[in-house]
Amino acid sequence: MTIIKYRSYQSIDIEFDDNTITKNKSYDSFKSGKVKNYNHPSVYGVGYIGNGKYDIQKHIGAYNTWYSMMKRCYSLNYQKDKPSYIDCEVCEEWHNFQNFANWYELNYYELDDEKMHLDKDILVKGNRTYSPDTCIFAPESINGIFKKKDVSRGKLPIGVNRDLGRNKYRSSIAKWGETIHLYSHDTPEEAFQTYKKEKEKYIGEVANIYKNKIPRKLYDALMNYKVEITD
Hints:
alpha+beta, three-stranded antiparallel beta sheet, 3 domains, single chain
């Protein structure tokens, strides 16, 4: 970094090697290296704090949510344990924490004692990009409805397991905190159709319980959600 204007010992302007300029810093902070370039991508080589009103200490909720989002998309170590996030990305606008924090301030809400989750694929099914148009906050009880167990089901359709004792295929659904076993069928496709019907019905039931507590676009997305055999 280079001093480009010296008004006094307590007021200098500095330019970094990426042409970012920061103003009104003390010479002591410059000399000790404490002046930070907030446009430098310091978070997983992608995210940066940016210059603006959102301080990471004063807006710790927004920062923790932003940092976790960047981690899911750009930490190779994280993706080793959570491979479902491979190929996910954060839109360029949200690389800047200031932009994300502003969206967070406008869209975050709380419900009773429930933990809130930043969700990227309820509004846009199959979405792989975190962005203002695709994301919404959802309570954990709603977000958990859409968790998948790809490893345990193998190559079978979602919601279907092999009933080895009867040489049939049985569907089951996680509902109201417990696993409910549905009917057995001769084919996995038939078992899936039973699961699809019950899952969509359950999503609608949950949506109506939360109807007056969640954003309208989240409610509409839940009511219109369709379970596909390729899920």
